[in-house]
């Protein structure tokens, strides 16, 4: 199995936050109660003063502060709450602690984070200042699966914004935050639909002789291929997956790659190309786009 999703029912999600909770607010807005994708049922914080807790409480979502008395104590209590509430997916949103392998391993593939850079560039802290100091002309944000490193997990989705002359860390932060509030919910829908997942043994078996080729792709390229693989598998065309990664496979593969691109970012030229494919391919691709692009 490539992904534990879709579940066949609305997902129960938890958000972990340490501060203001602006991304939490975007997630609460995107996944309210009775949303068919799922809803946020629990918000956890290591900081009892975090404004994120107030945001959750205002919306009637259970908000729990677990004061930091060490990683083992915090994670033990958090894991117990996640299990007790039947949580399916955990979303880190400004959570400022590095989780241990004991926490990450059982949740791997169901634990996401958002980071304000185009990973693998600029992991860690002081991101916007470092981007400006380096003279970058572009930056962005990355939603990724959490692994045992710091901002090193497989990428789900990235978005880009320009760095403008005269920018400060503060102006850049506002621009990236605006992007993040749209990027994170979309990434969550990709995960819940089974179109984003960390590479594992199931993928390796499916790719066969194409696995070494996949391994050669840059971290930012892999999500595109994974979305195409997931689409072909969902369409009952898993036998085309090895050929797809080798640049073969005909219109179905072309439709899968066009849809995979459009699932990340709309583009008129790609929409036009998709419209020119056979009706069967086009309808399958458009259905996938419609499901992920729809907030309901």
Describe the structure in your own words:
With 296 residues, the chain is of the alpha/beta class. It has two domains: 11-192, Formyl transferase, N-terminal domain (Rossmann fold), CATH 3.40.50.170; 201-293, no CATH class. It contains 13 helices and seven strands. It has helices at residues 22-30, 51-58, 71-84, 101-107, 127-133, 169-192, 201-207, 211-216, 222-234, 241-245, 250-264, 268-275, 279-293; strands spanning 11-16, 38-45, 62-65, 89-92, 111-115, 138-145, 155-162. The chain has a seven-stranded mixed β-sheet with strand order 3-2-1-4-5-6-7, with helices on one face. β1, α1 and β2 form a beta-alpha-beta unit. α11 (250-264) runs parallel beside α13 (279-293). It is globular. The two termini are 26 Å apart. The model has no long low-confidence stretch (mean pLDDT 96).
């Amino acid at each position: 199995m490539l992904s534990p999703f879709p579940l066949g029912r609305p997902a129960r999600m938890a958000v972990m936050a340490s501060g203001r909770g602006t991304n939490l607010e975007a997630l609460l807005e995107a996944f309210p109660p009775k949303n068919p994708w799922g809803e946020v049922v629990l918000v956890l914080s290591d900081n009892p003063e975090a404004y994120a807790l107030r945001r959750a409480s205002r919306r009637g979502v259970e908000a729990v502060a677990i004061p930091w008395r060490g990683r083992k104590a915090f994670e033990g209590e958090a894991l117990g709450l996640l299990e007790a509430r039947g949580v399916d997916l955990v979303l880190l949103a400004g959570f400022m602690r590095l989780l241990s392998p004991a926490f990450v391993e059982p949740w791997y593939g169901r634990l996401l984070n958002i980071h304000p850079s185009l990973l693998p560039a600029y992991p860690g802290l002081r991101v916007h200042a470092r981007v400006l100091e380096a003279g970058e002309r572009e930056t962005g944000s990355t939603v990724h699966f959490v692994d045992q490193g710091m901002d090193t997990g497989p990428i789900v989705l990235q978005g880009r914004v320009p760095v403008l002359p005269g920018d400060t860390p503060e102006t850049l932060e506002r621009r990236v935050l605006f992007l993040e509030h749209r990027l994170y919910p979309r990434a969550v829908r990709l995960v819940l639909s089974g179109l984003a997942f960390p590479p594992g043994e199931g993928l390796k078996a499916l790719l066969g002789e194409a696995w070494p080729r996949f391994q050669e792709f840059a971290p930012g390229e892999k999500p595109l291929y994974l979305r195409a693989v997931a689409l072909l598998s969902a369409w009952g065309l898993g036998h085309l997956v090895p050929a797809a990664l080798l640049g073969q496979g005909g219109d179905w593969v072309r439709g899968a790659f066009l849809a995979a691109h459009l699932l990340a970012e709309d583009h008129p030229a790609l929409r036009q190309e998709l419209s020119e494919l056979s009706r069967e391919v086009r309808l399958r691709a458009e259905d996938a786009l419609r499901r992920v692009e729809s907030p309901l």
